[in-house]
Amino acid sequence: MAYAMIGTFTMLSSFLNCEHAMYRRYIKKDQPYVESKEMAWGNAVHSAFEHRIGAQKPLPDGMRQWECFAAPFDGKLPQVEQKLGITRTRKATGFWDKDVWFRCKIDVNVCAADTAFIGDFKTGGSKYEDPFELEIGALLLKAKRPAITRAAGSYIWLKENRMGQCYDLSDFDGTWNRIKDLMSQIEARKPEEFVKNKSGLCGWCSCKDCENHYVARK
Question: Which of 76, 93, 149, 155 could form a Cys-Cys staple with 97, CB 3.0–4.6 A?
Fold first, then answer.
């Protein structure tokens, strides 16, 4: 089916976790967006790092212990909170342009000649670290800057005060094929074909009319 949607990492991640919940949030769009306290804190942290790295404004009280994760970008001409888009044919386009098919926002990146490094600040836990989000950022960055042939990246786990593993993100074709495969699966589904996947996340899901939903204990 032809759905009016623009792909993102969050959408694909939701699809892999529960197809039904993804359909309700991103295609049918009958689930209201509710910002949790954790999400609000994450947004505040990202804004603080954007101003610290991009404009040399000190981190606010309560975040200055993370200066060690901002200082290494000083003097390296970093780009912060860069919004990128790509078309169905893998061409760079604007984040809000009419032909955008997939989009992402990169917390911080540094490019030099044919290489790039991507950093992604995280305020949650690192139990399920997966480089796919970094790989997507690298692919869209290469579309914007075709000279890039090598890319690496790490998650920065602020709650744990550590850098995550440094991943090689240079398999741009592999990342593109994975995105295309997942997007094709979504586009091929009929509304009733999106599978309801029961998991430990069902207690926090907004789809309260689903038979798998339960009230999570805080």
Answer: 93
Backbone angles phi, psi at 70, to 5 degrees: -100, -40
Q: Are 59 and 24 spatial neighbours (Cβ–Cβ below 8 Å)?
A: no
Residue-wise pLDDT tens digits, 117-162: 999 999 999 988 999 999 999 999 999 999 999 999 999 999 999 9
The beta-strand segments (E) located in 2-78 are: none
Could you tell me how far CA 6 lies from the centroid of its own chain? 13
| 6-16: pLDDT as tens digits | 999 999 999 99
Indicate if the alpha-carbon torsion angle 69, 70, 76, 78 is positive or negative.
positive
Beta bridge partners of 103: 85
The DSSP output letter for 205 is -
- Least Cα distance to 153 among 107, 113, 114 occurs for 107
- SS3 state at 85: strand
CA within 13 Å, CB half, 52: 23
Give this prediction's pTM. 0.94
- Rg of the Cα trace of the chain? 18
| For the chain, domain boundaries | 9-204
Level-2 CATH architecture, domain 9-204: Alpha-Beta Complex (3.90)
Nearest to 46 by CA among 98, 103, 97, 121: 121
What letter would DSSP give residue 76?
Answer: S
